[in-house]
Design a protein that fits this description.
about 725 residues, alpha+beta, Hypothetical protein af1432, Beta Polymerase, domain 2, Ubiquitin-like (UB roll), 6 domains, four-stranded mixed sheet, 30 helices, globular
């Protein structure tokens, strides 16, 4: 964008000089009338006055930010009310100006745009995630009413990202992550490619600066190496297609840093394995010209198998259309060729903003616009159905990813799904009733599992059951990729299985309470659950249990609040501080371990970490083999158990005070190689009456030996004494457990 270059000399110009440049651009643009420019002048005057005492983190006058946002919108070809709203977008939140005052001075249209862009005020939500989700929900509501809201918001975020260096490091990372997960996918779905790519590149720059610098360095080197090749290739292409197409436009395109980053770090590719870093773009007048050019390109160069994509016949969900093919050029150098019409190019560059930049823009007027915004309505409906405000955030992260697959129904209809979507997602994308009655699927005529991940070009047939009462499985919630399918499954359980949901919800609450050591009397339990249900806006505990049962509410997400409330108002006094009156747990095993809430269970000590009395331990409920005891710092124990796949299977275990069992511990001894080393180590252990269960050694080329041994000890303190004795042996460098 041209705005990116202007950003570099912002510091050199005063705010009024910057606005003078903006005003000059508006005068040169014939789509702005003198009356509209006068209204924009009035908006700038108010913004300058209200922000006069405010500074940005960089120390610059705050007014440069609204001016920069307005410049970005001019680049995108937005209309006068959008420019006015950009200049005023922070006045309601950050100054004494009210929305009513803006409405009186600038009219309803500008006031509504400012209100839509204005950040959500402080609301009583429990977590930062809920706050973010509610903010995004409000934004989606506003943008569905007027899509210009999100275009202004994207311009606002883009300038903030360009000036993010002045924020604190953690704040930079938080904003960059939100940009990458929320705003860039929205820009992609709206088809505003320049904003999407710059937001992604800036986000990666702050989230992974080392990788960003490496990719930029590799790109610079490749540019110098390939510059002559690309110029020569463009001239050859121009010469060949001139006889087929009249006056084509041919230019080059460099893949974004984030696009390269995704392939290198998420698809595990080397820089040299990415074939579309450079592309030649051919822009012509008609669709027929596109296919004629494709024939010429494939005649000139050898096409690479599996690298041709026809987005003209199968447009992306954001209405992007183009022909993509990767071919081998001179000396076997691969490069991509993109072929499109001018109308397709405008849509590719400006996306939905082309509706304002080119008034003919989207044929069909409001009806076409409504169709392109259907995904927003679907997200809002899914969130309303689930009752979980964070569902919107999850939907944006999963459903708006750039990599889409295009799958066909047996009738030839195209269904667009995010990469990784399953046959179940496909079924629910066709119709809710089809998904609910699904019993299997065929792909290209062969039976596949219902969790099969569909791929572009496949023909998928959903097999359904006519049996009354047939419905989805709860396991499907962990299989589906799209939020839409997940919410439809939850909705089915919510409406069809209320009694089952209540029972499942009660069981899950009780499991989580046991796992987190929350003990309540019957009276307190009833009161506690009633208050918890009311806080989640349910009329009664049964509705709360049912919501948990069908997956509308995550108990794990509520646990921080539950623990806080329990410790504050319900925890017994004797549990809050150590005391001699604390009772010993009643349930213990002959293996020297007490398991919270479980009696007469098989105990085994995991061989991955060999826990000893004195170690901090935790138990895992295995399938058919009792409870496996691990050290808390064992690599096989999740760092965040609440976020692990099966958190309910991890239970609290403690050592009995009078444990007298013997345990095996493994040691690794590094020492200088010498004759008699193993004998001296064995002698020290014999003097301590420590039994050696296993011992062997391996010599290294650097004059060192490594001895591996398993010994029998009674507890951690005993093991420490053994280690201390071994460390005294001549030549021993280290002893590790």
């Amino acid at each position: 964008m041209a705005e990116q270059k202007r950003n570099e000399n912002e510091k050199e110009l005063t705010p009024r000089e910057q606005y003078a440049q903006l005003r000059e651009r508006l005068r040169d643009d014939t789509s702005f009338s003198a009356e509209e420019i006068a209204e924009i002048d009035k908006a700038y005057a108010l913004a300058e006055e209200m922000h006069s005492a405010q500074l940005r983190f960089s120390g610059q006058p705050y007014i440069i930010h609204p001016i920069a946002v307005a410049n970005i919108l001019v680049d995108l070809g937005m209309d006068a009310p959008s420019i006015e709203a950009a200049l005023l977008h922070d006045t309601v939140e950050d100054t004494d100006v009210t929305l009513e005052q803006l409405r009186a001075q600038f009219g309803d249209e500008v006031a509504e745009l400012v209100d839509g862009v204005t950040k959500l005020g402080k609301v009583p939500l429990a977590t930062k995630e809920e706050f973010q989700a509610e903010n995004i929900r409000k934004m989606l509501l506003a943008m569905y009413k007027d899509i210009r809201v999100i275009i202004i918001k994207l311009a606002d975020r883009l300038h903030n990202m360009r000036t993010l260096d002045f924020m604190a490091p953690q704040k930079r990372r938080d904003i960059a992550l939100e940009t990458l997960e929320i705003y860039a996918p929205i820009a992609h779905r709206l088809g505003i490619r320049p904003a999407k790519e710059e937001l992604e590149d800036l986000a990666i720059r702050f989230l992974d600066p080392i990788a960003y610098a490496d990719i930029e360095k590799s790109l610079d080197a490749l540019r110098r190496e390939r510059l002559g090749f690309l110029e020569e290739t463009k001239e050859k292409v121009r010469e060949r297609i001139a006889s087929v197409v009249h006056d084509p436009t041919i230019d080059g395109r460099v893949k974004s840093v984030h696009g390269i980053y995704r392939k290198m770090y998420m698809q595990n590719k080397n820089f040299d394995q990415i074939y579309d870093i450079f592309a030649i773009r051919i822009i012509v007048d008609t669709v027929i010209d596109c296919y004629n050019c494709l024939g010429v390109i494939h005649d000139m160069f050898r096409p690479m198998p599996g690298r041709f994509k026809d987005y003209i016949a199968n447009p992306k969900p954001n209405m992007y259309q183009s022909l993509h093919t990767t071919v081998l050029g001179k000396d076997g150098v691969p490069f991509e060729v993109q072929i499109r019409t001018w109308e397709m190019h405008r849509t590719a560059e400006y996306g939905i903003a082309a509706h304002w930049k080119y008034k003919l823009g989207m044929k069909g007027g409001k009806t076409s616009l409504d169709q392109r915004l259907a995904w927003i309505r679907q997200m809002l409906e899914d969130q309303k159905e689930s009752g979980d405000v964070q569902e919107i955030v999850r939907a944006i992260k999963s459903d708006l990813v750039p990599e889409d697959v295009f799958v066909f129904t047996p009738r030839g209809d195209v269904i667009t799904l995010p990469s990784g979507a399953t046959a179940i997602d496909f079924a629910y994308a066709i119709h809710t009733a089809v998904g609910n009655k699904m019993v299997g699927a065929k792909v290209d005529g062969r039976i596949v599992p219902i969790d099969y991940q569909v791929k572009t070009g496949e023909i998928v047939e959903v097999l359904t059951s006519s049996q009354p009462g047939k419905g989805p499985s709860r396991d499907w919630l962990n299989i589906v990729k799209t939020s839409s399918a997940r919410n439809k499954i939850r909705s089915w359980f919510k409406n069809e299985k209320r009694d089952e949901n209540i029972a499942e919800g009660k069981a899950e609450i009780e499991r989580e309470f046991r796992r987190n050591f929350i003990r309540l009397s019957d009276e307190d339990y009833e009161k506690f659950i009633h208050n918890l249900a009311a806080r989640q806006r349910f009329d009664n505990p049964d509705d709360f249990y049912a919501a948990i049962g069908f997956g509308g509410i995550s108990v794990q997400r509520l646990m921080p609040y539950i623990k806080e409330e329990y410790n504050k108002n319900y925890r017994p006094h004797e549990e809050q501080a150590p005391s001699s009156a604390v009772r010993e747990p009643k349930r213990s095993s002959k293996d020297g371990v007490t398991v919270e809430g479980v009696d007469n269970v098989l105990i085994k000590f995991s061989r991955c970490c060999n826990p000893l009395p004195g170690d901090d331990i935790i138990g895992f409920i295995t399938r058919g083999h009792g409870i496996s005891v691990h050290k808390r710092d064992c690599p096989n124990v999740p760092h965040d158990i609440a976020a692990s796949p099966e958190p309910e299977r991890w239970v609290r275990v403690t050592w009995n005070r009078d444990v007298k069992k013997e345990f095996q511990a493994s040691l690794q001894i590094t020492a200088l190689s010498r004759i008699g080393l193993m004998a001296d180590v064995s002698l020290q252990l014999a003097n301590m009456r420590v039994n050696i269960n296993e011992i062997f050694s391996r010599d290294a080329k650097d004059g060192r030996s490594t001895i591996y041994m398993t010994v029998t000890v009674s507890n951690v303190e005993h093991l420490k004494n053994v280690i201390a004795r071994i460390e005294k042996v001549d030549g021993v460098l280290s002893v590790e457990r």
